[in-house]
Please model this.
Amino acid sequence: MLDTFLTPPNTIATAKGDGPPLDLSGARHRVFLLNLAVTNIVEQEALDLTIYASADGVAWGAKPIASFPQKFYRGEQPLLLDLTAQPDVHFIRAHWDAIRWGRGPETPMFEFSVTLKEISPEILTETRSEARSRM
Model:
């Protein structure tokens, strides 16, 4: 089961950028829990982080397959990525854009990391069944 970083730990972003491609061919399941951890920022800025997919690790889709909510503060944000319906996706990578407004230096600065953990699809089935039984 995959359990790794999608971006290098303590990535510092001052402009838009891309993380390295992550090969998913070793994954037994196609369901992943991503976690964005913002550990350092300056005020009056925003981080947009999206996930792109590729069949070969070279040509990337024109649109992201997943997006984290825009971040303005330190903290963590989980995101479920289910690729079971997309068997042609063999690689993913993170893309970010950091923007800043207001007074002070114009260059934004975010320190963050994104982790990826493969999860069993049975966990999702069990969770959905439990939720239905409570209704």
Q: What stands out?
A: The mean pLDDT is 92. The first helix runs from residue 121 to 134. Helices lie at 121-134.
